[in-house]
Amino acid sequence: MRQILRLVLLSSLFASPAFSQSALQNPTVVALKAAHLVDVRAGRVLDSQTVLISGGRIERVGPSSDVAVPAGATLIDLGAATLLPGLIDCHTHLTSDPHNAGYQGLGISIPREALTGAKNARITLNAGFTTVRNVGASGYSDVALRDAINASDVPGPRMLVSGPPLGITGGHCDENLLAPEFNYHAEGVADGIPAVMAKVRETVKYGADVIKFCASGGVFSRGDLPGTEQYSPAEMTALITEAHRLGRKVAAHAHGTLAIIDASNAGVDSIEHGSLIDDAGIAAMKAHGTYLVADIYNDDFILGEGKSYGFTDEMLAKERLVGREQREGFRRAAQDGVKIAFGTDAGVYPHGGNARQFAKMVQFGLTPMQAIQSATISAADLIGWADRVGTIEPGKFADLIAVSGDPTSNVTLLEHVQFVMKGGQVVKNDLVK
Ligand code: ARG
Q: Which residues line ligand 1 (CB under 6 A)?
């Protein structure tokens, strides 16, 4: 039986396009050369570097004068370009599109969402994001997408996925658009301590890598307010403790002050949005080492184009309550030393534009290098993948990108990523050679 299984596995491996390509084109080692390389751990740019890649992982990195290209290696010389680690977005919704917000979304099936995810996975990877943490999807469409990407069925970034986000009845993570007689509640709804514990277990059972919950109201929901708390501190503690027991990190959607403080004190790993953060919230996050994942580009899109995408008046009104405040809060939190990880909420705005947030982060207080670190080494730390992504170092997956010019002086260059490699496979190469 085992023999047969092994044969079946092997033959499917040989049949997959990814395998045959790598077998033919990357016989052993790939040598990647570039004039510059961003060392995100040291926070500096190194000149004239060579990266040796084998078996999909980085084997060696150093000055081209020291690192000889082994005989038989495939040489990719990126010339004057700058190499960086593949980017990481810690807050995406690949299975959603902005057109699905509000009432329009009610007509979209879960299988359709999965296919939307396949489209957006490719777009996101081509934009230079080789890893995403996807925090919220219906029907485990995100689990299906992650598994399809891992099986090389569809191209896309490495994904950590949450499945359906947990939330209170009537809260931001419920569905409040339907009249009572439809008797519908979102699959992540759980009220009370035993229910949140059971829901965490169920979500993990069906494939979640990370748990997402709504600690406050939100913008893209009906009848709630971003500033109000959803879940009691006792429920949050039970939820987070249970997730941690099962080895899963927890991300809390929290715009409101109280939700930020209570979720941080309950041990959450990251605060998403963090829009109305105050000094007490900053202090709680610093005390617990909680990451802030603030989608501070989002407001430009929502207020600029939301109406034409069919966002409701209520959503737009709520956006006006949080959007500008969020940016000022981000500036203060970053200045005071709260840990920052990059997350955009792409899905609320069109996928592929993730990198537009870098310029906002620089406008609101980070240096370009800090903004890049938030999307590489810091993001990898938040998601628990510091051992495999986020830096260009031996042992890490060969997930690398390149741009023309110096992104540490002009961070908008990251909006035009010209070379993408994931796991040693070239996904995109618009640079000559
Ligand atoms: N998903 C979030 C919500 O509905 C989006 C918030 C977007 N606004 C912002 N300023 N970041 O609450």
A: 218-220, 226, 273, 275, 295, 298-299, 302, 319, 322-323, 326, 345, 348
